[in-house]
Design brief:
The protein is built from five helices and seven strands. The protein is α+β, with helices and mostly antiparallel strands. Among the domains are: 70 residues; 82 residues, no CATH class.
Length: 226
């Protein structure tokens, strides 16, 4: 007769411990995720009110996500508008500064015009351009003009002779002054202001502004006499 041994070779465990160890040893099934399991239970539930509540909750979650997305878009748009507003403010500030500077310069110019020139010795004058390679070309058939051309081309002229097309007298413009040039047997070429007596051609450019034109001066032949 054999006697049963106690306790048995495999220790006894509670049913809860066996279930916990079995669950711990195997990975949980994805079908038992909390949210999914709840939806499956509600879908399988014969109670229509629970299904309606689940549908309503899902719609509320979707609306909430849309509101959050709209809020994020509004925040980004406000940030972009704020940056554009800052740039526009800087441009307006620079424009105002330029306007103030121009107004100050305009005021200085206005004051200067009201005060007038400070130098009381200012006198009007006439400036004529001088070409460095200008050559006086005489009119064909005029011995007077040929001698004036010879005189003008031998020197640097600040004021030029300009022959006027006159058939009777050899009239010229010396700058803006109307003069008459003519040949003389003894003196050569004489230059005469129409309001005074004649003077020598070589002396006329240098002395016409300071010398009284009562004395007669001339240029004879190819050399100018003083």
């Amino acid at each position: 007769m054999q006697i049963a041994r106690w306790p048995p070779r495999s220790p006894l465990r509670r049913v809860e411990e066996a279930n916990e160890s079995a669950e711990a040893g195997s990975p949980p099934s994805p079908s038992y995720a909390p949210g999914r399991r709840l939806r499956q239970q509600l879908a399988q539930s014969p109670n229509p009110s629970l299904q309606e509540q689940l549908k309503q909750r899902e719609e509320e979650i979707l609306e909430l996500r849309q509101v959050i997305a709209m809020k994020d878009g509004i925040i980004r748009s406000l940030g972009e508008k704020l940056g554009a507003a800052e740039v526009a403010g800087q441009v307006i500030s620079m424009k105002d500064q330029v306007i103030r500077q121009l107004q100050a310069e305009l005021e200085d110019i206005r004051v200067a015009l009201e005060q007038g020139p400070r130098d009381g010795d200012l006198r009007p004058f006439t400036a004529l351009p001088i070409a460095p390679a200008s050559v006086y070309i005489p009119s064909p058939g005029s011995s007077v003009d040929e001698r004036i051309a010879d005189f003008s081309n031998r020197r640097r002229n600040l004021v030029l002779f300009t022959r006027l097309e006159e058939e009777v007298a050899d009239l010229y413009l010396y700058g803006r002054m109307l003069v008459q040039c003519f040949e003389d047997d003894e003196e050569g070429i004489l230059v005469q202001d129409l309001a005074s007596r004649a003077m020598r051609c070589s002396a006329f450019p240098n002395l016409c502004g300071t010398l009284k034109l009562g004395s007669t001066q001339s240029w004879s032949g190819t050399s100018w006499q003083h």
